[in-house]
Write a structure and sequence with these properties.
By secondary structure, the protein is an alpha+beta fold. It has one domain: 3-Layer(aba) Sandwich (Aminopeptidase), CATH 3.40.630.30. It has five helices and seven strands. The two termini are 26 Å apart.
């Protein structure tokens, strides 16, 4: 397994994985991802914030990161954190606990970038995802009603989100 930045050649595969993930979400949850703007992902790629996990010469999983997420994390955004968004797994690789692999990678990434927390959010109150992320080492911080979603992807509009974080200890 190898983790590296995505590049512009990956953009069609990233969107294919997003569509597969959205289709899966529609079978399980009332809230699902909207169609994301290609410009959003292109910017993340250009800024080295879009990631891929390669397994058997295949993009097995993708996700995005940022160091700033004020509309979701509000006053907590002042904390030094890496935020993980839009984890999407290739269907042939589901069940491989890629979140655990992402967590291990993110711990090192956070340390290298002098961040104290790894954070992620999900839209809604989803007991299955809450249990999964807490088993993966995240602390569930509770639900938060978003106040200002202008400019965020459509699934955040008027949403309540589940917030998760993991504190990183420096050696």
């Amino acid at each position: 397994m190898k983790i590296q930045n995505s590049n512009h050649k990956d953009i069609d595969e990233i969107f294919r994985l997003y569509q597969i993930a959205t289709d899966f979400q529609k079978t399980k949850f009332s809230v699902h991802w909207p169609a994301f703007e290609r410009s959003l992902v292109a910017t993340e790629i250009a800024e080295n914030r879009q990631w891929k996990m390669i397994l058997d010469d295949t993009i097995a999983c993708v996700w995005a990161t940022t160091f700033d997420d004020p509309q979701i994390w509000e006053e907590r955004n002042a904390d030094p954190a890496v935020y993980i968004h839009r984890i999407a797994t290739h269907p042939d690789f589901r069940g491989n606990n890629f979140v655990g692999s992402i967590v291990e990678w993110a711990k090192q990434y956070a340390l290298e970038n002098k961040k104290k927390f790894i954070r992620l959010d999900t839209v809604g109150d989803n007991p299955g995802l809450i249990a999964y992320y807490t088993r993966s080492g995240f602390e569930f911080l509770g639900l938060s009603k978003l106040k200002n979603t202008k400019g965020l992807p459509a699934h955040y509009d008027n949403a309540t989100v589940s917030l998760f974080q993991m504190e990183i200890t420096f050696a």
